[in-house]
Amino acid sequence: RARFDRKIADFLLCDEALRVLAIIELDDRMHDARADRKRDRITEAAGYPTLRFSSRNRPSVSEIAARFQAPEMP
User: Is residue 67 within 8 Å of residue 51, measured between CB atoms?
Assistant: First the structure.
């Protein structure tokens, strides 16, 4: 628990029953790619994939849907 205590997600992608399908992160230049990969491995192991986008180019709903439905998410 201590490894993931006090972490904040930018957005959650949920289904109609409010089950979390994915975590959406908007990354700016202050993000640490190495720390992000570590966090993504933790959330992936818990069953929550992370979709990352640049905070400068916020995605549309259709862009998020396309990434979520892609066979392999980065």
Answer: yes
